[in-house]
Amino acid sequence: MQLNVLPKQSRPREKLLKQGPSMLTDAELLAIFLRTGVTGMNAVELADSLLKQNHSLHNLFNASLTEFSAYKGLGEAKYVQLQAVLELSKRYLKEQCHRDTIFTSPDAVNDYLTIQLRGLGHEVFMVLYLDNQNRLITDEVLFTGTINSASVYPREVVKAALKHNAAAVIFAHNHPSGLAEPSQADKIITKKLQSALALVDINVLDHLIVAAERCVSFAQRGLI
């Protein structure tokens, strides 16, 4: 069925304008992005089919150009548009962190770190540098490792934190395997970093691990 023959309240664009974006399903939101369907499927049906084939938005959004273009109704132009949307989302969240967010709980950074780290095929170790009111000064990826591990050096972390005049830090790294549980090595390096930074009066507020579908907080687990 063509979207223009559906009742107005059932059309994604009209539904969004009347009820707000949070009331739309994943397929309806994706349909607005796609704008048009293909032969035999309207935009919502196409979006629903793509989500079922990929099993999640995450898999669809992290597909390569070749993988993305292999699906009926998608191509280079849509891939470019999607990547632009994702990058704008990252920059928006980062801007909000700089302006508004006060990092006093793990929930405040989950969205930001998830969009930054989820989907990477290699492991990275990221540090968020905070001022004395726990607001974001800046962040950076300090170490990049293989798909299995990243080498993290406490001396380099201390130097970087002092360079940015941080009063506190939050660590984050991803697990490309998709398993978010902290390993024994993760726990050991976190303790080493805490001890090293304590010598220069810099607090470690949390260490978060980002995997495919989860974000695990050391603070919430009582590990910090």
From TrEMBL:
Any GO BP annotation: proteolysis
SUPFAM superfamilies reported for this sequence: JAB1/MPN domain, RuvA domain 2-like
InterPro entries named in the record: MPN, RadC_JAB, RuvA_2-like, UPF0758, UPF0758_CS, UPF0758_N
Record bears the keyword Protease: yes
Boundaries of every MPN domain copy: 102-224
Bilayer-crossing regions: none
UniProt KW keywords: Hydrolase, Metal-binding, Metalloprotease, Protease, Zinc
GO molecular function: metal ion binding; metallopeptidase activity
NCBIfam families: PRK00024.1, radc
Family the entry assigns: Belongs to the UPF0758 family.
Protein known as: MPN domain-containing protein
Organism expressing this protein natively: Pseudoalteromonas citrea
